[in-house]
Amino acid sequence: MRTAQTGTIHHDALKLLAPAVRAYGFGLLSTTFPGLLSLLFSVLRGKVGGQDVVAKITSRISREVALDRWPTTCGILVGSVTVGPLPFLSLLNAWHSSSGRNVTARAKCNVELLIRFLTVFSAALGSFQLLNRRESKEERFQHEEARRQEGFGERDISISNSAQEQEARTRLAKAGSTSTVLAGRTLDITFFSLVRATDVVIYSLWTLFRVPSRGRLDHKRARSLVEHIAPPTVFSMSSAIVMWAWFYQPDRLPRSYRTWISNAAQVDDRLIEALRQLRRGNFVYGQDTGMADLLGSMSKDLGYPTTWGDPAKTVPIPCELYHSGSGPSCEWHAMTRFFQAWQFAMYMYLPLNLLVLARRDDARRASFKALLEASQSSAFLGAFVSLFYYGVCLARTRIGPNVLGHQTVTPMTWDGGLAVANGCALCGWSIMFEKAARRQEVAYFVAPRALATIFPRRYERRLMRREQFAYALSIAIILTAAKNDPGRVRGVFGRLLQRILR
User: Fold this and answer.
1) Which of 124, 129, 329, 391 has a Cα-to-Cα distance from 244 of 20 to 30 A?
2) What angle do CA 294, 298, 300 make, to 5 degrees?
């Protein structure tokens, strides 16, 4: 009898802790899998020897299982929403029983919801401190530079010369004084959580306060229109911000994201640099500012006269240069960009779709379905690139000068940022090529990156409390909603939380 009770208790304890364990496992997988996959490719290419593989795998896993890493945070946060409230709920139930007060089910539910929210909020505050406990490379360099300025010798500080650390030095030099210790290592997580929490709140309010249509067709159509257009609008605004940053403030984007956009755009770096210098006022139409060689060399490589790249002799930059040699037609250039980007995306989407669908369908059906879905997603990327380029053409040559005239808006103004802004505004509407269900996911993916370009990547450490509050509040909203009403956390992320919390 006692053995059976003990076994039941152990089973209940394991069931209670299972969500936290699953969250820890997912966090560990999300942080180690990309590195292990990269290591596998290095082994296949012969860049890493067999003897070093085990050591590298062990080192990476042992680093990620530390207490101040993301897997531990995942376990703590999920545990706070499943296990954390139980003692307080037990005390609340005991108080209700002893007091003999009649409490309505609704009031009891609201109190339990508040307890769960406060428990997660407190755990999130602590996990934020845990994640920021260890110094990043940039913060370590800041402390080292501060020590030098305070009189410590160069010999007292050992600094390696790895590429990552040199890059961190460069970013610190651009940020300003190294004596000010900067924070911001958790901003990506905070922005992601903030976007998802905002969606939970808006969706909850939309569901709660929308007026029943009672069969009125105009109300139904209005609601349907708002729900249909909201994700594309969010994505369009977010992608416009990201593309503007890629053009004029590339340092505000993560290096991997910046590189991926450049590979998809397939544009000559000299043209990008010329447009950047135009905006900065260093590449001036009608003047010799010493930058004729920037586009002059590009003109020569494309088989055009070098004078086409000289701003003192040619105003504005000819379309042939902007089209990178595809001819004078803006429409033909847009079509070629579409198919180039479509082909680029197919190499990425087709293997992924085959891998996902092969587990669920027979081989022939899976291959055909994967081809269709990959083609549709590739069309979205192709249209994104094409609309960006054609949006610039519409502003600087096709429509802009013909409507506003060269005197009202000069070529310098168009090429100094206005034309690029038009391309940024148009490209995001390519999301309409995607399935309606995927538009929301793509918008959720881009929106945090747009926020990251608006706010500084590093800020003074004394302001960290503001990020901590935003982080904790967002996490508390998401996990409380996921536990209380899973449908309010939408998309793939919501389904993932449901699997973890089940």
Assistant:
1) 329
2) 115
The Cα–Cα gap between 472 and 453 comes to 22
User: Taking the C-alpha atoms of 310, 311, 315 and 318 in order, what is their torsion angle to the nearest 10 degrees?
Assistant: 50
CA 126, 130, 135, 138 torsion-angle sign:
negative
Strand, helix or coil for residue 113: helix
Q: Is the peptide bond before 19 cis (omega within 30 degrees of 0)?
A: no
For the chain, state the CA radius of gyration: 28
DSSP-H helix ranges across 302-393: 319-322, 330-357, 363-393
Q: What is the pLDDT of residue 157?
A: 35
Q: Give the tens place of pLDDT for each residue, 396-426.
A: 888 888 888 777 788 888 988 899 999 999 9
Angle, vertex CA 149, rays to CA 148 and CA 154, nearest 5: 20
Closest-CA residue to 132 (of 394, 470, 468, 361): 468
Dihedral sign for Cα atoms in the order 64, 58, 259, 252: positive
Distance of CA 130 to the CA centre of its chain: 23
**Beta carbons of 202 and 233 less than 8 angstroms apart:** no
The answer to whether residue 173 scores a pLDDT higher than 60 is no
Q: Which residues of 338-362 are buried (b: 16+ CB within 10 A; e: fewer)?
A: bebbbebbbeebbeebbeebeeeee
Helix (H) or strand (E) holding 182: strand 182-183
Hey, what's the torsion of the CAs at 398, 402, 408, 412, to 10 degrees? 30
Query: Is 47 in a helix, a strand, or coil?
Result: coil
